[in-house]
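From the methods appendix. Each design record in this collection lists the tokenized structure first, followed by the designed amino acid sequence. Records were kept in a plain field format so they could be parsed without special tools. The example shown here is representative of the layout used throughout.

RECORD:
FOLD TOKENS (226 positions):
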């Protein structure tokens, strides 16, 4: 049975069949000892926590790929991303479509000066790493960290990606699914965002500590010496 239409592209596979194929692929991988970490099927919009939603919101702003992103969102929602691993600035994933495809995404590290600017602007405002990772900071701080182009989230030009599918588009739906899958992964492991961008979240907290220490010291000096 052929999975390709007359144009040479993979034929459409209904969601139910794709889901069954995904489940079968995961089961087969487990039998072989593979450690797959799938993005579970879900309902509603991708991204449930602050960081997951923020990642997906930034992704949806990529106007150059607006015709592919909705398909990717549908794929990840239906459990087509059967494996997604983030290691440093690299994402390796497997997506089930008309066939099983391997996807690779590389995220460029945040520019050093840009990270210093973020740290400086947030200085004294972040007291806890836990609160940072939970997204429980002031609106002003979170807006600064999430600012388009100058914040922590990547621009399209800061992403490189590849997929083993035959689609010749710059971004295929499988890559789009994986990018949305990253947002879902950030729901449970927000620290991976900082790993993807090549920075340490503790820098923001340390910066706050240094700032607070200087403030306390300045007040003490003033009280002693006027």
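DESIGN:
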């Amino acid at each position: 049975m052929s999975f390709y239409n007359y144009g040479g592209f993979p034929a459409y596979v209904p969601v139910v069949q794709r889901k069954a194929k995904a489940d079968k692929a995961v089961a087969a991988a487990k039998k072989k000892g593979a450690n797959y970490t799938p993005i579970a099927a879900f309902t509603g919009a991708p991204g449930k926590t602050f960081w997951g939603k923020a990642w997906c919101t930034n992704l949806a702003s990529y106007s150059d790929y607006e015709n592919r992103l909705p398909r990717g969102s549908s794929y990840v929602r239906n459990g087509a991303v059967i494996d997604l691993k983030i290691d440093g600035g690299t994402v390796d994933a497997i997506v089930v479509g008309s066939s099983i495809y391997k996807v690779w995404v590389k995220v460029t590290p945040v520019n050093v000066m840009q990270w210093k600017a973020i740290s400086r602007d947030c200085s004294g405002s972040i007291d806890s790493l836990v609160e940072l990772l939970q997204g429980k900071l002031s609106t002003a701080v979170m807006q600064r960290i999430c600012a388009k182009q100058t914040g922590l989230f990547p621009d399209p030009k800061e992403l490189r990606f590849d997929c083993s599918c035959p689609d010749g588009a710059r971004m295929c739906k499988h890559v789009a699914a994986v990018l949305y899958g990253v947002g879902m992964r950030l729901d449970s492991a927000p620290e991976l965002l900082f790993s993807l961008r090549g920075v340490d979240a503790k820098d923001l907290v340390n910066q706050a500590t240094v700032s607070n220490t200087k403030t306390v010291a300045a007040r003490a000096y003033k009280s002693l010496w006027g």
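APPENDIX NOTE: The chain has a mean pLDDT of 83.
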